[in-house]
Write a structure and sequence with these properties.
The protein is of the alpha+beta class and about 120 residues long. About 35% of the residues lie in helices and about 10% in strands. The chain has helices at about 1-15, 45-55, 85-95, 105-115, and strands spanning about 20, 30-35, 95-100. It has a 3-stranded antiparallel β-sheet. It is globular and about 45 Å long.
Protein backbone atom coordinates (compact mmCIF):
# COMPACT_ATOMS: atom_id res chain seq x y z
CA UNK A 1 0.00 0.00 0.00
CA UNK A 2 2.90 2.36 0.69
CA UNK A 3 4.00 1.96 -2.93
CA UNK A 4 0.45 2.62 -4.14
CA UNK A 5 0.36 5.78 -2.03
CA UNK A 6 3.72 6.80 -3.47
CA UNK A 7 2.50 6.29 -7.03
CA UNK A 8 -0.49 8.49 -6.31
CA UNK A 9 1.66 11.12 -4.60
CA UNK A 10 4.00 11.22 -7.59
CA UNK A 11 1.07 11.43 -10.00
CA UNK A 12 -0.57 14.43 -8.34
CA UNK A 13 2.66 16.35 -7.60
CA UNK A 14 4.68 15.53 -10.71
CA UNK A 15 4.26 18.79 -12.62
CA UNK A 16 3.72 21.37 -9.91
CA UNK A 17 5.53 24.69 -10.05
CA UNK A 18 5.85 25.10 -6.28
CA UNK A 19 7.47 21.85 -5.13
CA UNK A 20 9.96 19.28 -6.42
CA UNK A 21 9.29 15.76 -5.23
CA UNK A 22 11.65 12.89 -4.54
CA UNK A 23 12.51 10.47 -7.28
CA UNK A 24 12.72 6.78 -6.62
CA UNK A 25 16.09 5.15 -7.12
CA UNK A 26 15.49 1.41 -7.20
CA UNK A 27 13.28 0.46 -4.27
CA UNK A 28 12.42 3.20 -1.84
CA UNK A 29 10.83 2.24 1.47
CA UNK A 30 8.44 5.19 1.02
CA UNK A 31 8.28 5.90 4.74
CA UNK A 32 7.33 9.42 3.68
CA UNK A 33 7.18 11.86 0.79
CA UNK A 34 10.10 14.28 0.59
CA UNK A 35 9.85 17.55 -1.24
CA UNK A 36 11.76 20.76 -1.88
CA UNK A 37 9.90 24.05 -2.12
CA UNK A 38 10.39 26.03 -5.33
CA UNK A 39 8.74 28.81 -7.29
CA UNK A 40 6.30 30.92 -5.25
CA UNK A 41 7.09 28.92 -2.07
CA UNK A 42 10.91 28.89 -2.33
CA UNK A 43 12.56 30.13 0.88
CA UNK A 44 9.19 30.24 2.66
CA UNK A 45 9.49 26.98 4.55
CA UNK A 46 8.59 28.43 7.97
CA UNK A 47 5.41 29.92 6.50
CA UNK A 48 4.54 26.68 4.68
CA UNK A 49 5.14 24.45 7.70
CA UNK A 50 3.18 26.67 10.08
CA UNK A 51 0.32 26.88 7.56
CA UNK A 52 0.29 23.10 7.16
CA UNK A 53 0.29 22.66 10.94
CA UNK A 54 -2.73 24.99 11.21
CA UNK A 55 -4.52 22.71 8.71
CA UNK A 56 -3.71 19.59 10.75
CA UNK A 57 -0.89 18.34 8.49
CA UNK A 58 2.22 17.11 10.28
CA UNK A 59 5.64 17.52 8.67
CA UNK A 60 9.22 16.52 9.45
CA UNK A 61 12.59 17.82 8.29
CA UNK A 62 14.52 15.85 5.70
CA UNK A 63 17.26 14.25 7.79
CA UNK A 64 18.70 17.25 9.61
CA UNK A 65 19.15 19.81 6.86
CA UNK A 66 22.64 21.25 7.04
CA UNK A 67 24.28 19.33 9.88
CA UNK A 68 27.15 21.84 9.93
CA UNK A 69 24.81 24.34 11.61
CA UNK A 70 24.48 22.19 14.73
CA UNK A 71 26.59 23.07 17.78
CA UNK A 72 27.76 19.46 18.13
CA UNK A 73 30.05 19.90 15.13
CA UNK A 74 32.52 21.85 17.29
CA UNK A 75 33.29 18.54 19.03
CA UNK A 76 33.91 16.65 15.79
CA UNK A 77 36.98 16.26 13.65
CA UNK A 78 35.74 16.71 10.08
CA UNK A 79 36.56 18.33 6.79
CA UNK A 80 34.35 19.66 4.03
CA UNK A 81 34.98 18.76 0.43
CA UNK A 82 33.48 21.20 -2.05
CA UNK A 83 30.49 23.28 -1.07
CA UNK A 84 27.37 22.58 0.94
CA UNK A 85 24.82 24.17 -1.40
CA UNK A 86 22.64 21.04 -1.57
CA UNK A 87 22.43 20.65 2.20
CA UNK A 88 21.69 24.38 2.46
CA UNK A 89 18.86 23.99 -0.06
CA UNK A 90 17.39 21.08 1.89
CA UNK A 91 17.81 23.05 5.12
CA UNK A 92 15.95 26.09 3.73
CA UNK A 93 13.33 24.40 1.56
CA UNK A 94 12.99 20.69 2.34
CA UNK A 95 10.53 18.69 4.41
CA UNK A 96 8.50 15.51 4.22
CA UNK A 97 5.09 14.19 5.17
CA UNK A 98 4.54 10.65 6.34
CA UNK A 99 3.20 7.67 4.45
CA UNK A 100 1.13 4.82 5.85
CA UNK A 101 0.15 1.21 5.19
CA UNK A 102 -3.43 2.27 4.44
CA UNK A 103 -4.69 4.16 1.39
CA UNK A 104 -4.11 7.92 1.61
CA UNK A 105 -5.75 9.21 -1.54
CA UNK A 106 -8.17 11.48 0.36
CA UNK A 107 -5.40 12.81 2.63
CA UNK A 108 -2.99 13.37 -0.26
CA UNK A 109 -5.67 15.29 -2.15
CA UNK A 110 -6.21 17.47 0.94
CA UNK A 111 -2.45 18.04 1.20
CA UNK A 112 -2.19 18.97 -2.48
CA UNK A 113 -5.09 21.43 -2.23
CA UNK A 114 -3.60 22.98 0.90
CA UNK A 115 -0.18 23.38 -0.77
CA UNK A 116 -1.69 24.81 -3.93
CA UNK A 117 -3.71 27.36 -1.94
CA UNK A 118 -0.64 28.70 -0.09
Amino acid sequence: QRRNNAEYFQKIFLNTDYVSIQKENQYSSWFGFSMILKGKLKNKRDYVLSSLKEKGIETRPIISGNFLKYPVTKFMDYSIYGNTKNSEEIDRNGFFIGNNHIGLEKELNYFKKTMKDL
